[in-house]
Write a structure and sequence with these properties.
The structure is a single chain. By secondary structure, the protein is an alpha/beta fold. The chain is built from 22 helices and 17 strands. It has a 6-stranded mixed β-sheet, with helices on both faces. A 5-stranded parallel β-sheet has the order 4-3-2-1-11. The protein binds beta-D-glucopyranose (2 copies). One beta-D-glucopyranose binds next to loops.
Length: 628
Amino acid sequence: MAGTRMTIYFMGLLLWCCLTKAEYMKYKDPKQPVRVRVKDLLDRMTLDEKIGQMVQIERSVASAEVMKKYFIGSVLSGGGSVPAPQASAEDWINMINEFQNGSLSTRLHIPMIYGIDSVHGNNNVYKATIFPHNIGLGATRDPELVKKIGTATALETRATGIPYAFAPCVAVCRDPRWGRCYESYSEDPQIVQAMTEMVPGLQGDIPANSPKGIPFVAGNKNVAACAKHYVGDGGTTDGINENNTVINWHGLLSIHMPGYYTAIAKGVSTIMVSYSSWNGVKMHANRNLVTGFLKSTLRFRGFVISDWQGIDRITSPPHANYTYSIQAGIQAGIDMVMVPYNYTEFIDGLTSLVKNKIIPIGRIDDAVKRILRVKFAMGLFEYPLADYSLVDQLGSQKHRELAREAVRRSLVLLKNGKSADNPLLPLPKKASKILVAGNHADNLGYQCGGWTIEWQGSSGNNLTLGTTILEAINSTVDSSTNVVYSENPDAEFIKSNYFDYAIVIVGEYPYAETNGDSMNLTIPDPGPTTITNVCGAWKCIVIVISGRPVVIEPYVDSMDALVAAWLPGTEGQGVADVVFGDYGFSGKLPRTWFKTVDQLPMNVGDPHYDPLFPFGFGLTTDPTKITL
Ligand code: BGC
Ligand code: BGC
């Protein structure tokens, strides 16, 4: 009798132990240190669950079922990939929460992390504030301003339920023929380094004395950042996208690496690998630089992500031997792979490489630990689902004002008056009749450039909300000033009109990545004709909208004033603020402005340096005094 009671008692005790043990899982306890949580969770995971964490898929192939069935660790929006045209913040949140609920319904409830290219604001999203592209921010020389833009971008990204931004791009563009040159803050590594203030802007400031290399995200109003593209993306031969960067170790360290040291010191959570090669070796397969230098020497503790189909492009043609690509990429040290479509092919390939002991389980554990470390550090386990509390941040007035300020600060005045004692700028607001010309004067798509709503950007004024430069001029001049807009005035128009002065706004059409590679860097037609015709007839200021220096030398003599406005984004009012003297010009060239393309590459410090406008150049004006 007593024995039976004892047995029941012990069985009960055992059951209680097991139950409480099952209830208390260290990894779920936010009071446990991240290190302990990571280990506890990793120890519970099967190989399928581990490999799933390493997979990032595109939203168009994601669903709650897919998340659950394959234990997918991450989802992204590719350029222009949205839940619906003009989707609201709520639509975004609903989509992402649905995927997340799939992830949370798995055995271990590991949340997925959703990423997007918030590279100049939350730029895929309708109504988001579009900030100037990085080249314009480089011209401001103001890291504090860039940090504020990071904070605003984080809020607008979180507004749509997204906790992860593939930014900042810390490329050091050494040749403007490169189609991604506008994603680079400068040709000067020190400026790029200074602009890594974008990292604490996006993620929040790391606590004092925190050890170097540990990923950090302050909370729900911040996002995990991504320094990209590691390393040497801006140094390829002739500026050809995804090409080969030929440079010695010292050159790589002193030009292309500094941005990474600083981003890591500021707690950047992730780093994206470059499509490009270094001295003939694909970065996606470069074990020395990814595992050796980045992880071991620099002690980066966040996760390394591949670029879009980046491992596919290890072989030429891409995807020629995917199993080899998986092996080379994972062995190099890539932790998360932006697959992004054929995830079963990746999962099957990686699983058999591990089962056949070609890839050691230790490599998988390293990858998963890093991914989980970021997810724990950013509080994703505590707050996996987004709510609507930040939706009003999207395109808020406050952020638009910040973007407008950034536009003002980014403008570089290259010429002011045919002689220095006779400046044209600032323009008088009061005039009888002025002309605005050029195909970029009234085109929001053009002034935003690539990576805006669409991957390649677009044309026209319906893509999103914003102010074109023409609209800004109209609302800035005196009500008595007659503003005439003629996109490309012909000879007849020119003969039969008189204007006090003309504002010509021309430039490049939007592009992204390889589509932007240009060997001639000419302003496309009819831009040059508009400049020649208008500046031949009236006093003129030319405002160039472009992602980089373009061929301008042949036209400079005909102009009275010249402004580089880069790709200013949605807040065109910032241009009028400065041109009409409410604020002064202060921007400095973040890049060398060449005379002819046969000088390229030509960067500050080069022996053959003979620029049209040198690096750092920029005339200034004083704001117009208001006389009462
Ligand atoms: C871009 C993606 C984009 C895709 C379109 C990729 O190279 O990075 O963001 O959606 O191409 O095919
Ligand atoms: C680009 C990356 C981008 C990714 C996702 C790639 O084509 O090179 O910069 O983050 O697509 O859109």
